[in-house]
Write a structure and sequence with these properties.
The protein is an alpha/beta fold. Helices cover about 25% and strands about 25% of the residues. It has two domains: about 250 residues, Zn peptidases (Aminopeptidase), CATH 3.40.630.10; about 70 residues, OB fold (Dihydrolipoamide Acetyltransferase, E2P). The strands form two sheets. It has a 13-stranded mixed beta sheet with strand order 1-2-3-5-4-6-9-7-8-10-16-15-12, sandwiched between helices. α5 runs parallel beside α7. The protein is globular. Bound molecules: ligand LFNQLBSZ and zinc ion. Pathway: Amino-acid degradation; L-arginine degradation via AST pathway; L-glutamate and succinate from L-arginine: step 5/5.
Amino acid sequence: MSVRKTLFDGEPDWLAHTLSRAGQASAPVTAALPDGAEIRRLDTGILELVPASADDRRLIISAGIHGNETAPIEVLNGLLNELVDGRWQIARRTLLILGNPLSMVAGDRFVDHNMNRLFSGAHAKAPYTGSPEAARAAQLEQACREFVGDADRVSHYDLHTAIRPSLREKFALYPFVEGRKVPQDQCNFLLEAEVHTLLLQHKAGTTFSSFSSSHLGAESFTIELGKVRPFGQNDLLRFKGIENALRRVFRDEPAPTPPDADELTVFEVVHEILNTGDDFQFHVPDDIANFTPYQPGTVIWEDGATQYRVGDVPEAIIFPNRNVPVGQRVGLLVREKA
Ligand SMILES: O=C(O)CCC(=O)N[C@@H](CCC(=O)O)C(=O)O
Ligand SMILES: [Zn+2]
């Protein structure tokens, strides 16, 4: 049987298969490639790529944790099509994940709950238990744990696109782990992917990348690659940087040396804005671009008891979103690291 037939049950490719099986299990199957590598379908939207020979490094690439963030999903699907068609050979043991198939079908960020707040065990807590996102987050945690085993050289790139435009189109977030510093090879990977901005998180959270970094010891990044658009409406030329960088990593080819002048601009979190409840008022407009700076003294939010004003130097807003449940993040205020 052909590789496509084995893996995709009559659907043309992985994306079509994942959408057609959203919310349902897919039986594990293995397809052998001519070079001795294998593609193992572990379940719907979860594939393991096993090279004919590989070292102990492990790579996890995820997209579609938010179902409407379609460009990275299309990029991963395109790369997998190339592998299936024999255009290159896999040399790094890799777990490929399309995160939330049900919300991909719906064309929405999520169905019941934002899945990127349900990792590190949050899926087991009220009010999330029983929702499709809670079940999927638990499944993805387990798949990652089994894939990583006792490997200690693990990278995880969780690919997203942002709801709003951004003054810095592509940027990565580095989850907080006490004492950890971003390794130079990871900085070089980001630059190779045309990501020139890095935000250092200030505390561990319940995102997928925070889970893999805190619980699996991975070097993990959430990578924002552009703007949310429906399937078929992405200009994939704008995503060539990540596509080429991932293909190079899959093939385990040597990393290019970044030009001397090529450096990441690093930001740090100054303040995390949380929805504090009924009296919460957020003074940032809905359509403001990520990284828009606010001048010292500007009131950003208030709730009757507390008022937050920008400090002595400008602070820039990221991910402004007033429509989140009480207790969740409404946005981040950041500034360039000195
Ligand atoms: O554009 C937005 O408001 C959200 C884009 C997005 O989904 N971002 C991630 C960032 C995760 C992180 O903080 O590492 C998210 O909000 O889940
Ligand atoms: Zn997202």
